[in-house]
């Protein structure tokens, strides 16, 4: 899942991004509305965590733009105000969910994951394919009943491959979904991660390399 965090309180923004990355999400961070509009014009995001009171371009205007573009991106709006009228107004702008500050981080994660599930075709909460069971919420992976311990990026790559339901996923698509924009697209990080993932999943190999195209399970 790829997420954009838009929050002008930099310490909070960076803390949210760090926490989401630990949950195997690819996260970009900006600190004002103008930068947010630039990012959504370039990258495809599953979820935007959007502070309402932003400098340069207000969060309301960022939300309106996402709706106007007809993007499948879901918006979780944050605000320091807990007034019901503000929450209603934010939802009427086109936000998909609303979370007042301060918030419990566990709730933020749950809401982001719930919104992320709504950007694609409905899938069961636990993904199963080729003898592998992957639970995105618990961040657990089992193969033939045996738990497999994965690093966050390995988990993210496996989740993308399993959600593709047998379709080939290119290295570029894996970079887009599992890494943030600071990753050098010319590195071999995808190949190395897939190799490590194959080793951890054990024999027989379940991740197939399709020459010139990408990977599939």
UniProtKB/TrEMBL annotation:
InterPro entries: CheY-like_superfamily, OmpR/PhoB-type_DNA-bd, Sig_transdc_resp-reg_receiver, WalR-like, WH-like_DNA-bd_sf. GO terms for molecular function: DNA binding. Pfam families: Response_reg (PF00072), Trans_reg_C (PF00486). The modification 4-aspartylphosphate is found at residue 51. Residues 124-217 bind DNA. Residues 2-116 form the Response regulatory domain. This is DNA-binding response regulator.
């Amino acid at each position: 899942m790829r997420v954009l965090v838009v929050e002008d309180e930099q310490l909070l923004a960076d803390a949210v991004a760090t926490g989401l990355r630990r949950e195997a999400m690819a996260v970009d961070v900006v600190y004002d509305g103008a930068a947010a509009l630039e990012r959504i014009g370039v990258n495809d995001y599953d979820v935007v965590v959007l502070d309402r009171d932003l400098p340069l371009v207000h969060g309301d205007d960022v939300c309106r733009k996402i709706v106007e573009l007809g993007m499948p991106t879901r918006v979780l709006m944050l605000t320091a105000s807990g007034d019901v009228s503000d929450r209603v107004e934010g939802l009427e702008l086109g936000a998909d969910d609303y979370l007042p500050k301060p918030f419990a981080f566990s709730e933020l994660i749950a809401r982001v994951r719930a919104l992320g599930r709504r950007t694609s075709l409905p899938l069961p909460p636990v993904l199963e394919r080729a003898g592998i069971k992957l639970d995105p919420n618990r961040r657990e992976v089992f193969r033939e009943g045996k738990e497999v311990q994965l690093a966050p990026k390995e988990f993210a790559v496996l989740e993308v491959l399993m959600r593709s339901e047998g379709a080939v996923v290119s290295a570029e698509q894996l970079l887009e979904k599992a890494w943030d924009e600071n990753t050098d697209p010319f590195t071999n990080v995808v190949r190395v991660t897939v190799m490590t993932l194959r080793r951890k999943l054990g024999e027989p190999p379940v991740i197939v390399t399709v020459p010139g195209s990408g990977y599939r399970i």
